[in-house]
Amino acid sequence: MSGLKERLGRLRAASAAAPEAPKAAASVPDGSLHPKFASMGVELYENEYGAFLLRRMIFPFPYRHGHHDLIDLAGCAARLTPIAARQNRAADTPAPHANQLLFLDTETTGLGVGTGNVPFMIGFGYCTEHTFVVEQTLIRHPGEEKAMLAYLLSHLKDKTHLVTYNGRTFDWPVLVNRFILNGWRRSGPEPGHLDFLHPSRALWKNTLPSCRLGTVEESRLGIRRGHDVPGSMAPVLYVQYLNDGNPEHLHGVYVHNEKDVLTLASLAVHFGQLLDGNSGDAWLSEAPAEELFRTACWLEQHGSAEHAERLFEQLAVREDFGDGGWAFALAARYKRAGRHDRALPLWKQTAKQPKPPHCRSSTRMWSWRCITSIARGS
Amino acid sequence: MNPYTEKAESVEEWLSLLRKKPELMENVTHWHTQPARPARTVPLPDFIHNKLAYALGQKGITQLYTHQAASFRAVQGGRHVVTVTPTASGKTLCYNLPVLQTLLNDDTARALYLFPTKALAQDQVAELQELANLMEADIKTHTYDGDTPPTVRQAIRNAGHIVVTNPDMLHSAILPHHTKWVKLFENIKYIIIDELHAYRGVFGSHVANVIRRLKRICRFYGSEPQFLCASATIRNPQEHAERLIGESVALVDDNGAPAGEKHMVFYNPPVVNQQLGIRRSSVLESQKLAALLLKSGIQTIVFARSRVRVEILLTYLQELVKRELGTKSIRGYRGGYLPKLRREIERGLRNGEIRGVVSTNALELGIDIGQLQACVLNGYPGSIASTWQQSGRAGRRHGSSVTFLVASSNPLDQYLIQNPDYFLGRPPEEARIHPDNLLILLDHIKCAAYELPFEQGDSFGEEKLVDLLEFLAEEKVLHQVGTRWYWMEQAFPAHNISLRSAAQENFIIIDMTEGHRVIGEVDRFGAPTLIHEEAIYLHEGVQYQVEKLDYPEKKAYVREVNVDYFTDANLAVELQVLHVDLETNSGSLVRQYGELSVRSKPTIFKKIRLRTHENIGSGPIHLPEEELQTTGYWFSFSEEETAKRSANDMQMALLGLANVLVHLAPLHLMCDPMDIRVVPQVKALHTKRPTIYFYDRYPGGIGLSQRLYEIHGDLLEEAERLIQGCGCLSGCPACVGPIEEVGLLGKELSLSLLQGTRSGS
After folding, report:
1. pTM reported for the whole predicted model
2. Ranges for the Helicase C-terminal domain (chain B) (predicted)?
3. Tens-place pLDDT, residues A185-225
4. Which of chain A's residues have a Cβ under 8 Å away from the Cβ of B595?
């Protein structure tokens, strides 16, 4: 065999000349901090496992983020109990309390929950008595991971719930991988989850183009980000930083992650108020009927039958029929409850629609056909 | 023989009737009888757990065969073990006994079983569960593969004592998510690798690397499992196991299982055209023999080499014995049948409802179909090891069995049928792998880095790891920090790496006659000559013309046609020697082994009329050059030898010799004949002399030509014997090739070239 290097060289020639990039960041960053980090408010943090970077921001109450003020977290947290109950199997998960929530969002180097996906930035927020705090940890290279994770663990200690967006299936499993890979087996109870992706889907699946956090906050929470680095760009930007060591690549990622954490807190207020029957008069009159209906169903599932009923009542006077899917489902609901007087007008209304309602259920499709043919025949 | 039903009482009786049929017996070139072998057993070892002994007793097992006891002891002694035994010798107990023994004593212990196919995994789970039930022990055995429902996966990961899976699943689902398998990896005591011989060539080279990754993960979780391997008979089981798992292993090959008398009948179809050396079709002869067996009530398995042949033979046989047996009792079996149907056929064979089965080598592996009485091999299965495996499907522990080897007209079959002693007298082939093939190795280093960062001082294979890691860091796949290398790409590496396909990207063939329908695949190396634009592509006997070849997208669009010609493409092959690793000079012959670059480019294609073979037109092919860097072995003839004949004669001689060698090479290698290529050149660039090159048709090589370099002498000797022994006048498809290709003197020229060399050396 010719030398390994020679063969590797031929391999490279065959794969059409790899780009010659400067070999800059291979050296281990030491105790000093790049001045550009300092200008972004980032500090060097050290613990017994080593160093990493920390950016800490304090938002004194009252602090408004979009429609909601985070000061209301204190009052709303307990209202989230039904969501927590649905998402956590263990009966012993305590009721959420504002001081025991950790709002969490990670930025990772890749996709999926495999062992090679590394969270390079962990953003988390929590309430203190008079402030909301957002902390963001960053590792300058994978060797700093252990120190960062230890720091996160110290913040998890007195928290009962993780508030996330898809964190139950993504952020948390990825973090668990990292704990195991760094030789830690977490003992004791797992944190409870308040994963807001699920309620968002329940409410907005049919009325928003997507349930991505950015879409939800812009159209329902009144939050405008302006120039935001999309989350999907974060891995690329981090690799650029690894290659040339320039912190500027990460500026946008910091801002994006910070806003995500704040939005999670805003969502908590939003859902808490909703469950409290406080959906706002403007929303009641402006939201599409479909959303009203889905919200009412969601409230019903979460033990707020009374508030749900109020929304169902609202629907009776709505003119915006949309494709009529909600009306059809609502009619079925009234029929089950024996309220034929309510069901009939809705069916008649549905039967006037030129097209069947958007639905995947073939039985429903079939009954729509029956109803329209009866209505048209009579 | 019962005169009314025409059913034979036994295989012996049927054979004695066969001997009285001269029209068949004249085609039998050799009749080999292996005497019956009694069982050799020992009592159950005293250390066996009483529950295990009880369960075995319930199954009627009170003694162990010698090999079962030997492997049990070796495992108890802490060794890695490979057990080599033929079909139906109770080999699963060799590894199940120590595993169950350990699990009975330690509920936290875990074992991982690897089988090359899903069907084998399911068989195994059924057997283990039966034993666990008999022992009344709570031992949970589960398969974990693509069919496992997501809902039970978590339970298996946490609570399964024995997880049965395949290497592909290990590679793409278990290892990259090892953090979900903490329980398994922390407590793993045994890793079972059955059908070891199936892990050879490219697949085996990949699997060896998957095992390197597996061991790395086990070390991370602080466990050091024992490997228990089982293999069919190959020449180098111990060496193969050691290369595959990277540990030294104890060999257990003292087979104590009994066997009935076994007849091996070599059958050569009669010559129907002496001049052209054409024999009667082996399909028709196989069918005749199988029908005779089936009509006499003898349960028979027929092996054919391709899926198409399976279907042809099946149709013929069902038609022939329809009245006696009904079509349902003769079944086909091959890849592409749905799992449910396969299970039904296996069951039918075991309980005797199905009297005959026609199969590809899909039934060669250890799927439980019981033991049949007769086996008909349509064509040499390609290796001695496969032949014994397939023939082992017939053979009961008591009573006789018979195997017919029906030769086809290809040179390898003809060589074996005329030299039965060669076949009977030699051990099976070696299984070869080349885990350090640079491309395969790099692929798995990526996967391994994804699973755990590499650290200075780590090793992974025989090559210098640091150089490889630095290379990957320069390619921006890994990121180096101090003395560690981390995976630093967005992608999930295992997804793009398949353990099984030789050339990763195949061309798919889309029939546009009616709508769009994918009808087949052609590998990357075959594509330029088979599916260039205007080529006539044959699929299941139907002609299609290629209308468009989308080379970057790897798609060929074809339309059904009906024409009276086929196309033949010229491929200009340029070989460049990159590095010579080994060299031997014997005066008249110089042979070398090393690295080659093979550049091939199709130039023109010819349209050739069917039957008359006249050239009725041609056209250019516009396709880019393909480059393959691989390992090769080549030998060149001396100047004196070259001077003895004209360039044209030399050309014919080399061509004829190459035709023989390409068929003989697989005799020594357990590989597909397509894995190795032979190219003759009258004046080679590298040596300036007449040269014959062999190379591995896989980037980086997989160790095949290296083996050929070693056995060069035998290879030429066999070539000479084959050409001399062939009954044709001046060349036929069974030796140097048809006279249309090598000319009227081809046979003579090839032979004299060979003899000149051998006398000179």
Report:
1. 0.84
2. 288-439
3. 765 668 899 999 999 999 998 888 899 998 999 888 889 88
4. 1-2, 7
